[in-house]
Amino acid sequence: MKNLIKAKNHIYSLKDKKTEETIKKFFKTKKGTYGENDIFLGIKVPDLRKLHKKFPLNIEETQILLKSKFHEERFFALINLIRLYEKAGHEKKSFIAEKIYLKNTKYINSWDLTDVSAPRISGHYFLFENHENINTLKKMASSKYLFDRRIAIVSSLYFIKHNNLDFGLEISEILLEDHEDLINKAVGWILRETGKKDEAILIDFLKKHYKYLKRVTLRYAIEKFEKNKRNEFLKGNF
Question: Among candidates 170, 166, 66, 187, which has minimal Cα distance to 121?
């Protein structure tokens, strides 16, 4: 536990009230919002990444820190978990992905936490290590828990990176009418990334589902379109 103690001490030494207030602007922490009970220390991500290299945690230490009440400590735990996952063999990858990551999503409860970890852990895992159980992510996309849904859609970024475009579209279809802004934006993000690989596939998807698309999802999806084409899609002229 020596590295855990040292890491926590260094993390606390970096906390800054001014930075905390700035960071809070990017997260919904008011009553009734997803981040209502989150506690921030006020530490910038680059500083956490530097500590991650200086104090690499083992699996036991990582699991402990993942359950921290402090947002930055959970982030630190997740970047350690990515390192452990990527260095592990198949059996250990399965343990990390299923017994640690997917069993503790209640602690992965913010968009930055899902986005830093989901592609490289659950995305890689269900594409290359356990593809036969890919329906796990589809079930998560239908979860009542916001961040299970966010993990499901963001995981598909890893699929897109490796030219598997179908899966992200399948998850997007499940989430098209989601009521949460964090999901609407994520779906648009996935559609945009799909379009970078194959614009024709994106256009077909948008035409097929246009009446169900949230406005913010559409704007994210067509962000890279040429201006006139983007305006025509916003008007529904295609």
Answer: 66
